């Protein structure tokens, strides 16, 4: 393991990868997506501010709980000067994401409960679908596994994303 002296204000991509537990390729991907930033040395090598460790940890934890990278990037972009998130930032962001996470938990619960019953596509290809989706009523609401992914006011319809209907799941 590469030793990271406490006084080092910048890390190489290898040091950041070793310390964060994230592959170099993933760090480059995060950088390409605007989630982390580096400067280039005269020799064109990446150097990351030391606080990028906390930023990478924030990204990994957010991903681990199911937050898409797009939402993570949007959250990080809202921070002043795109600074590294603090504990207070995490509390505010995670509270804002609770509705999204609750929706995902509900989708997973329905998937678990309905997995052996029906794939939820509304295709009428299974005998059971004729009873739960007569005349392909769910197909009129759009493509995809409507029963498993969508439910609005007790009826199947558009996907709920961040509290607002959207045309398709993201």
Description:
- This protein has 170 residues and is mainly alpha-helical.
- The chain has helices at 13-20, 24-32, 52-64, 69-78, 87-96, 98-114, 127-132, 146-149; strands at 10-12, 39-40, 46-49, 159-161, 164-166.
- It is elongated and about 65 Å long.
Kindly summarize this structure in a few lines.
With 170 residues, the chain is mainly alpha-helical.
Radius of gyration: 22 Å
Strand arrangement, largest sheet? 1-3-2
How many distinct helices?
8
Percentage of β-strand residues = 5-15%
Structural class: mainly alpha
The level of helicity is 40-55%
Number of strands: 5
The stretches of 5 or more residues where confidence is low (pLDDT under 50) are 124-128, 151-170
Shape descriptor: elongated
* Main β sheet profile: 3 strands, antiparallel
Essential attributes:
three-stranded antiparallel beta sheet; mainly alpha; two-stranded antiparallel sheet; 170 residues; 2 domains; 9% strand; disordered C terminus; Multidrug-efflux Transporter Regulator, Chain: A, Domain 2; elongated
Secondary-structure map with pairings?
Blueprint (H helix, E strand, L loop, with lengths): L9 E3 H8 L3 H9 L6 E2 L5 E4 L2 H13 L4 H10 L8 H10 L1 H17 L12 H6 L13 H4 L9 E3 L2 E3 L4
Antiparallel strand pairs: 1-3, 2-3, 4-5
């Amino acid at each position: 393991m590469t030793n990271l002296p406490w006084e080092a204000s910048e890390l190489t991509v290898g040091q950041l990868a070793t310390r964060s537990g994230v592959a170099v390729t993933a760090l480059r991907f995060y950088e390409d997506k605007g989630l982390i930033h580096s400067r280039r040395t005269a020799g064109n090598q990446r150097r990351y501010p030391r606080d990028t460790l906390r930023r990478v940890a924030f990204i990994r934890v957010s991903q681990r709980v199911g937050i898409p990278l797009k939402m993570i990037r949007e959250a990080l972009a809202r921070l002043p000067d795109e600074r590294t998130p603090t504990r207070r930032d995490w509390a505010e962001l995670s509270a804002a994401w609770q509705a999204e996470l609750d929706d995902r938990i509900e989708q997973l619960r329905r998937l678990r409960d309905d997995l052996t019953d029906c794939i939820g596509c509304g295709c009428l290809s299974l005998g059971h679908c004729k009873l739960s989706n007569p005349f392909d009523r769910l197909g009129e609401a759009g493509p995809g596994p409507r029963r498993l992914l969508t439910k609005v006011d007790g009826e199947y319809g558009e996907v709920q994303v961040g509290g607002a209907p959207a045309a398709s799941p993201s």
